[in-house]
Specification:
Strand 14 and strand 15 form a beta hairpin. The longest helix has 19 residues. Helices cover about 40% and strands about 15% of the residues. The chain is of the alpha/beta class. The chain is elongated and about 95 Å long.
Length: about 450
């Protein structure tokens, strides 16, 4: 400690005196494209890795080992099923996200049955680039959001592969994961102790995950649904998973280098192929079509140049079943179904016109008109129910108005309907339940005058 300052002076002088003798070597602390996409780490010979020590084990897992031919045999086995094929293609597609100027996206394998090979599929995806042995390249959800963010930045254009979604649970034991945290490709801005801000991390890749449940809930925002392609696994991906896992663990890292070399040498062809697939997936939402086109483009390259030989190329129709349309991502469709179920399940809490009993229910949610099949819901009950489903009452009511699910006063755009509950006029939300034609309810009037079923 006493002579540290002198050692620093000595090293500085040594460097100054030998500037012409000391060889220069460029370095980089992350993987993926560098020098304006002219080279790709770790395959660039003129750039050395000089990253944090914490990422050294992950960096060392990204290497070639064993036989490329043996890996091809294993990949052919994995590609016998569509979920396995999509997972492998998504791993290659990660290297296309940046050159094709797309957003990061998720491919999530899920299935309630155990032993179907979801983890094995992730091993296959990892073997494209690195050692797929669990604990080496493949991560788990037993991590913080910051941890995944830092690993995504380090991998940059290589796929981030995370196993076992069910580990990610909230305090109530519910499986909860927000794909926005990684799918935006931009990390959180954080301050420093000195008062400035840290460099904001970014990444451009595919995130491949697995779990026992879907990643995206029905009530999730449209943006979250757009970010993930969810593939259900219902049957085993291979007959002999133990043998395939052994092959992948001893033969890996050969395919990624060949794929990247082709992409960098054939930029125009790759762009044209991608544009063609994007047009073919026009029925999906734009972001789902972008992600799907990346997967199809990667598969096209892999099969056409023989990285995985003897395969029929994936077609848009193969992938289309997993892509969401505008109707699929509309959260209000799910809210509407849940609201109808909620009304049916709580019918005992509604005053009814078709019952002879004068005794009101212990808990009142509103009134139900059996003849017209309309539920008149107290606004506070309506709001709390919609919020419990994950929706926003105000915007949901606007959506219901446009779909003709609400009665409103004629000539107004309000949603409140005045009716009698226990012989007292109160404002309610008048919900027209399914299985009734809209014309049947036009003649109903509230305490303030004639109504209509549209704004």
């Amino acid at each position: 400690q006493d002579n540290a300052r002198e050692v620093v002076k000595y090293l500085r002088q040594l460097e100054s005196d030998n500037l012409e003798e000391i060889p220069e070597l460029r370095s980089c602390g992350r993987m993926g494209y560098a020098d304006g996409e002219e080279c790709f780490l770790p395959y660039a010979e003129n750039i050395a890795y000089d990253g944090e020590a914490a990422f050294r084990p992950l960096f060392e897992s990204i290497r070639e080992e064993g036989s490329f031919e043996e890996w091809q045999h294993a990949a052919l086995d994995l590609c016998k099923t569509l979920p396995g094929r999509i997972t492998l293609a998504a791993s290659f597609a990660s290297a296309l996200v940046r050159p094709l100027h797309c957003l990061p996206f998720f491919v999530h394998l899920w299935g309630t049955a155990s032993g179907t090979g979801k983890t094995l599929a992730l091993m296959g995806a990892a073997s494209v680039w690195a050692d797929p042995t669990p604990g080496r390249y493949v991560q788990t959800f037993n991590s913080t959001a910051v941890g995944h963010e830092r690993i995504a930045e380090f991998l940059q254009n290589l796929p981030l592969i995370i196993d076992e979604l069910q580990i990610s649970r909230d305090y109530r034991g519910q499986v909860v994961y927000d794909p926005y945290k990684l799918a935006e490709g931009i990390g959180r801005t954080r301050g420093t102790r000195s008062g400035g801000i840290e460099r904001t991390p970014t990444w451009h890749n595919c995130i491949i995950t697995s779990g026992e449940t879907p990643m995206i809930r029905d009530t999730a925002a449209a943006g979250a649904k757009n970010r993930a392609i969810e593939v259900e696994v219902t049957e085993p991906l291979t007959e002999d998973g133990h043998r395939l896992a052994g092959l992948l663990s001893h033969n890996f890292g050969h395919a990624g280098k060949r794929f990247v070399q082709f992409v960098m040498q054939n930029r125009e062809l790759v762009n044209d192929t991608y544009d063609s697939f994007y047009r073919d997936l026009a029925k999906a939402t734009s972001k789902q079509a972008l992600s799907g086109a990346l997967i199809l483009t990667a598969d096209n390259i892999v099969t056409s140049i023989g990285i995985v030989p003897k395969l029929r190329m994936l077609q848009p129709s193969d992938l289309a079943q997993y892509l969401k349309t505008d109707e699929d991502i509309e959260i209000n469709n799910s809210l509407w179904q849940q609201l109808c179920d909620w009304i049916t399940g709580n019918m005992s809490a509604f005053m009814r016109d078709d019952t002879e009993s004068d005794r009101p229910p212990r808990e009142i949610f509103g009134r139900y008109d059996h003849e017209k099949n309309i539920a008149f819901i107290l606004p506070s009950r309506f709001d709390s129910a919609v919020e419990s489903f994950g929706g926003v009452p105000k915007s949901f009511k606007k959506w219901m108005l446009t779909r003709g699910h609400l009665l409103v006063r004629k000539g107004t755009r309000g949603s409140s309907f005045v009716t009698r509950v226990i012989d007292r006029p109160v404002g309610t939300i008048a919900v027209i339940l399914p299985d009734r034609e809209a014309e049947e309810v036009f003649a109903i009037e509230d305490e303030k005058g004639p109504l209509n079923n549209h704004a």
